[in-house]
Q: What sequence folds into this?
């Protein structure tokens, strides 16, 4: 197979952007690992993402992708290895700490509160206030208009930002979550499978947001099952399998077909293609 | 490039009448029910609409209402507090015992009772958050423990099951100004607790709708993991809510103590459900994340009006509970109907 | 055998044998009347060097269970109140069959001997109610409300019924919740406002009496107030002229006497009563004797 | 071709010790707690282990247990019934009134009471399913209505708040054989209700674990939409559960009536929470879909042992509630601990 | 564009399997429609599926795919049009009725009860019994072994069929649901987005199950967002857009690229491809 030509060690020194070097990485993990009780969900994974760069994380179900980003975003603490944010070693105790550093995460379950209005969800945890002392209050008008404006910038025209976010379609909810991350001056946006439940069109919209965030100079960590979604926007590709890293490739070092083949089951899928035909 | 994701949804028929926005508020159902009950008793009894009558049912509603508003906040935040009723007894008994038996300064006694109440509230929150046990069970245990301690300790210290001679404690009349007084207003003799009730309802509404903690209360009740993920301090919010409920228990305890100037070991037992009923009638979901303080206040108003209205109507008192049950069912059904009409899923 | 003298610390020097008396009543924990009964029984135990256990539950099934549990521990005597005599019949008979001397207290006088009890101390709530009714009738009232502070409590119903049967005036019952005195006060006020012809209020508990007195003030009603049971606040109200009288069933002696009798029986073979009941009341606390009762009430023994 | 999806998961470490399977049963925590409490009272009191003592706490536990088992089934099915306690009073009062006042045949009276109970249960189910209101609120309303009717109707018909003269109703002694008798066994005087309790617990366990309706009860409590989608008759299951609870209320009502041959208007009020407590202590989740009948029976056993054990231990009954609260907290914590140890998420 | 050459009316008469005619369809809908209150989720959609045939339903988020299959499976009643099962007009009142006709559905949310053991979930609603009269009881041993056996046939080797199904991975749960549908002698299996949350490998496994069910002579209705999943197994393709049918194509009448292009947003996605590139 093409495996040897894709040796991770070999491809590591490659850069998608030559003027940018690892020390400038916004987020970097070295040999990171995580166990849930007796289950080792992740071990010995290293990766980094810099500004204006898109790191794609690919892997099977249960490969540890969500675990990986939960460590980056402070939702879980890692049990091995080191995590560097802006070159400084960190151990997040609470998602708040990561957020305060500009690490914004769009979770697989979107982290929205279905019964709350769109604008309240948009600003949840980072509400705008006006006034001072006991008169300090939410800047409702400001938040409403900012939400409307930010969503419009993303190409979403909601009639009513007061409707509960639970009434939006999956794609719209996804977009709100991404717009939120971008708006709060995030340095890195982490997205966990934002496209899996989306139609072709909606997935395209989300990909375009990712490209836009990248063009604004944000770092993006993008998790997906779908090589067809990852390849167009990704700069680097981290492949996970059963909790360990299979490789970390620059875009120039791998083609979409090689990537598909390398993902666990790629080989089986080819074999399968015959079987799917009518006997 | 603008991919108009929103545009395609616009095509589907929807109504967005401004009236609908109002009708979608959680408290609308309770408002409709409250007006209906008000009209019913106003028309069918003589005394209900007299100034003296109004002040009576308002007072009744205010004592339930203060707790109902606090309990509603807690329910919106996704938790229950079944120890809320017994807490009104505990705080009253503490003040009673330390002033009448040990001669402590009455102001100090107030502060002491408040500190104890808040600690119990914090304890509830701590156990709930640390063990992950449902607050229904944890606070049921607290309720039993408070009930037992109220009785046994009072008996142990005072030798009887009620506080006597509270009225002759030095400084009683000063404190009574804040908790047990009344003033004339539009021909009514308005109890100070009504002022507390209205003030707290307004404050709670303000907090819920116009402050960050309010936003967080909805969030932790609606989806606790999501809230944690976006950085909401879940533990602090729940701690604050349990302490608010305990604090409201203290306030109601004081209002009762300084009104009737005596308190018994059984005070407050069985009241916890009335608070929950008021909150639910006022539109709070039992599952959390939805509701309003004004709704809970309206729920208490409905309860107070019904309770006293039945007396004004001179109906056979033995049926009281049956009436209350019917009223509860009716109120939640009206609530449901109003919300269904306005297209909100309950 | 010897007389009951002052028992030393720990009862080690108690004369005669160690005696255990079980008291099981139908009073719920925290009920102010039954709390005084309990105090009386326990004081008798302390005074005589006897061990007294006290339990109570208003539900006849539960009360029966408590009696059976007490009997299982084989006490030297059993004191039972019988609000609903049928309900505890088999439990009492079992105790008698087990050779345990039984004394009934408070209500249940009619069935006491039939069930095999030695004697009865106190009198029924109904008779006490009749006493209150007679007193109120003397005050020439015509429209009375009787405040029931615990819905469905048969003792309270009996008190109101007794009053209603002798008073010669309209008596209507009003239900309030003893757990919420402030609201009880409010409800009484509502009732007074709704029916200005009410000229007497009869309460059945001391806390409710205090609340009712304030309700009468607030409603500016001319109604006369009377109550069952005595407390320091109640004697003060009587002294201030805000209350006509308080019916005193002397619950303390309902607890104290049977424990004394049973202890004597164990230690001295005395069977007191001779098959006849011992009446513990009712006494009436009025302006004349209020001051004198007040100091006992302070101790929680009246 | 076989793509071994399972194979890759096998790699991850897991334990599957046979003991663990036992430890994962919902009732294990309650069993541990029950044994602890049994040992405690056996060692610290004289009377607890005597035949008379045992029959006393078993009897006490049996009356709670019958209801707790029914309530547990209902809770596993995802619903509450707060009217369960008052129902025991209602059924007893019906039999009492129609036999002593109207002279109806006692067997007919039994059937009549059962029919009324089942209708009320069906009514609860109907309202809950049709309106989608939480059963907590609907049955709270039913509870109030029953409580009011129990008092008012009994008072109206008999003129007092308790049924008198039940013992002299013709046929009373025949019926008593089934509901109020006792028989000697190993030196104990065993009440018939203990037999009912054991039989019903066994039956409920059989139904839950070995019949289709039992499977459906778990399913509707665990995920009601999924159950509907795979064709489980959700409405029928819930109807059956509410009627079972009401039927158990009837049974307990009869057991009490024919034991003490009297019933009061307040019978059963306040007991509803004890049933829920027993079920929760026995491992049922408040949120439904998990629990066991044996667990609920053990919960009732714990409650009965504590209640009577306190009497045997001669503790001051003023502290009773505080003990019960502490015991409840302890039992749920033990439960939690045992389940955490065995790796089951609560 | 290629639109005119793909006119649905034109392609309708085409058959993927000439010896099989519409009257033999197991399930057929004609001009079916459904409104939720004021929202018209579906209108005027016609389609059919015969034995040994795979009907793929594709469309955007909110296009009405789930609504469509909820009608077929009896979870919702249609408000317009006719539904024929085995040539007989039907109006299902309850999923039970559809199930009894052999219409088995694997819902988007999988319709499993997380806390219940795997084997109880497998047989939920169709439990096996032994004995008669009052001794009638669940055949636990039988159900356990059948579950183990059926899953093994699907290539899933569970150590313990007694573990709660909530502890299985997404792919495994999906497989259990499909195995269940196949086992209960279904004539039609309806699958709502079974592959969206799955990795490449797991998705391949599910596709192979679909092919296997088809080869056993079952009709399959397969809903997906992913043309790459639909094309290899599908015989006919129903494209939905905003609740209406865009077309119903035989496999021979359409290529995968045409299909992608035809799906709403296909055109936009092409435009997007440029944008995703670095500026
Ligand atoms: N809280 C937890 N407790 C125990 N095990 C866990 C926990 N969370 C995840 N795991 C296990 O860790 C492994 C990795 O899970 P993770 O969610 O990171 O996978 P993933 O790559 O995101 O999969 P998917 O594509 O299905 O989202 C899985 O085997 C999972 O069962
Ligand atoms: N119960 C409901 N009440 C009101 N509207 C509904 C309901 N269910 C679905 N809808 C609406 O009907 C439309 C079609 O929904 P449906 O679930 O069929 O879409 P879908 O094609 O399955 O989408 P997805 O790909 O996101 O699963 C959507 O606009 C949705 O909001
Ligand atoms: Mg994941
Ligand atoms: Mg769908």
A:
């Amino acid at each position: 197979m093409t495996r040897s030509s894709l040796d991770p060690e070999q491809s590591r020194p490659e850069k998608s952007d030559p003027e940018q070097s690892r020390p400038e990485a916004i987020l970097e993990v070295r040999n990171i690992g995580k166990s849930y009780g007796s289950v080792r969900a992740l071990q010995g994974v290293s990766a980094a993402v810099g500004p204006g760069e898109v790191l794609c994380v690919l892997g099977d179900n249960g490969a540890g992708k969500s675990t990986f980003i939960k460590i980056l975003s402070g939702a879980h603490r890692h049990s091995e290895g080191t995590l560097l944010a802006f070159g400084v070693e960190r151990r997040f105790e609470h998602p708040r700490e990561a957020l305060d550093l500009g690490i914004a995460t769009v979770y697989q379950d979107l982290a929205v509160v279905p019964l709350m209005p769109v604008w309240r969800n948009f600003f949840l945890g980072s509400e705008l206030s006006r006034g001072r002392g006991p008169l300090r209050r939410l800047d409702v008008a400001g938040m409403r208009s900012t939400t409307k404006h930010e969503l419009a910038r993303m190409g979403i025209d909601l009639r009513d930002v007061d409707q509960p976010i639970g009434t939006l379609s999956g794609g719209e909810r996804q977009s709100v979550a991404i717009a939120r991350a971008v708006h709060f001056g995030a340095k890195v946006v982490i997205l966990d499978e934002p496209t899996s439940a989306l139609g072709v069109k909606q997935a395209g919209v989300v990909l375009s947001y990712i490209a836009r965030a990248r063009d604004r100079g944000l770092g993006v960590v993008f998790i997906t099952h779908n090589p067809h979604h990852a390849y167009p926007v990704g700069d680097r590709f981290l492949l996970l399998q059963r909790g360990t890293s299979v490789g970390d490739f620059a875009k120039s070092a791998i083609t979409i077909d090689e990537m598909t083949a390398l993902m666990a089951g790629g080989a089986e899928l080819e074999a399968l293609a015959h079987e799917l035909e009518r006997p | 490039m603008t991919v108009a994701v929103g545009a395609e949804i616009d095509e589907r028929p929807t109504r967005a009448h401004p009236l609908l926005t109002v009708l979608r508020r959680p408290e609308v159902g309770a408002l409709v029910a409250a007006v209906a009950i008000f009209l019913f008793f106003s028309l069918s009894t003589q005394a209900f609409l007299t100034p003296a009558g109004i002040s009576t049912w308002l007072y009744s509603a205010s004592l339930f209402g203060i707790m109902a508003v606090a309990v509603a906040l807690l329910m919106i935040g996704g938790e229950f507090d079944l120890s809320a009723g017994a807490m009104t007894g505990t705080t009253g008994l503490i003040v009673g015992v330390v002033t009448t038996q040990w001669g402590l300064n009455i102001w100090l006694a107030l502060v002491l009772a408040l500190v104890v109440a808040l600690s119990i509230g914090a304890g509830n929150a701590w156990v709930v958050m640390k063990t992950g046990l449902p607050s229904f069970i944890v606070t049921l245990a607290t309720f039993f423990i408070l009930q037992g301690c109220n009785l046994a300790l009072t008996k142990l210290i005072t030798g009887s099951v009620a506080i006597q001679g509270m009225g002759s404690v030095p400084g009683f009349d000063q404190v009574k100004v804040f908790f047990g007084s009344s003033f004339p207003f539009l021909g009514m003799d308005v109890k100070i607790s009504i002022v507390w009730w209205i003030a707290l309802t307004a404050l709670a509404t303000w907090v819920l709708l116009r402050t960050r903690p309010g936003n967080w209360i909805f969030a932790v009740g609606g989806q606790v993991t999501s809230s944690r993920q976006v950085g909401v301090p879940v533990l602090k919010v729940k701690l604050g809510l349990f302490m608010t409920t305990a604090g409201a228990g203290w306030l109601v305890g004081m209002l009762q103590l300084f009104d009737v100037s005596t308190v018994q070991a059984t005070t407050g037992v069985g009241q916890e459900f009335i608070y929950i009923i008021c909150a639910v009638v006022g539109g709070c979901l039992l599952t959390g994340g939805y509701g309003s303080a004004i709704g809970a206040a309206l729920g208490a108003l409905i309860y107070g009006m019904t309770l006293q209205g039945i007396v004004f109507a001179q109906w056979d008192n033995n049926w009281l509970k049956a009436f209350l049950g019917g009223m509860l069912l009716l109120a939640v059904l009206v609530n449901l109907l109003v919300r269904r009409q306005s297209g909100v899923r309950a | 055998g010897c007389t009951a003298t002052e028992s030393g610390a720990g009862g080690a020097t108690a004369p005669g044998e160690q005696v255990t008396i079980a008291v099981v009543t139908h009073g719920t924990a925290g009920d102010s009347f039954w709390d005084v009964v309990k105090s009386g029984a326990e004081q008798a135990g302390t005074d005589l060097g006897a061990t007294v256990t006290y339990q109570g539950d208003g539900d006849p099934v539960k009360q029966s269970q408590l009696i059976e549990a007490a009997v299982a521990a084989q006490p030297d005597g059993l004191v039972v109140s019988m609000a609903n005599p049928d309900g505890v019949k088999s439990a009492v008979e079992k105790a008698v069959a087990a050779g345990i001397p039984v004394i009934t207290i408070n209500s249940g006088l009619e069935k006491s001997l039939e069930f095999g009890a030695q004697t009865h101390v106190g009198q029924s709530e109904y008779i006490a109610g009749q006493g209150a009714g007679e007193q109120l009738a003397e005050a020439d009232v015509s429209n009375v409300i009787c405040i029931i502070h615990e819905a469905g409590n048969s003792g309270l119903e009996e008190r109101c019924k007794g009053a209603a049967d002798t008073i010669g005036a309209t008596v209507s019952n009003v239900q309030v919740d003893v757990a919420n005195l402030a609201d009880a006060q409010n409800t009484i006020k509502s009732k007074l406002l709704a029916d200005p012809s009410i000229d007497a209020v009869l309460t059945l508990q001391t806390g409710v009496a205090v609340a009712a007195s304030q309700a009468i003030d607030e409603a500016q009603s001319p109604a006369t107030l009377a109550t069952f049971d005595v407390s320091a606040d109640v004697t003060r109200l009587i002294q201030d002229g805000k209350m006509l009288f308080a019916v005193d069933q002397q619950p303390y002696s309902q607890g104290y006497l049977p424990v004394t009798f049973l202890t004597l029986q164990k230690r001295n073979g005395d069977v007191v009563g001779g098959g006849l009941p011992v009446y513990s009341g009712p006494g009436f606390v009025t302006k004349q004797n209020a001051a004198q009762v007040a100091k006992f009430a302070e101790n929680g023994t009246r």
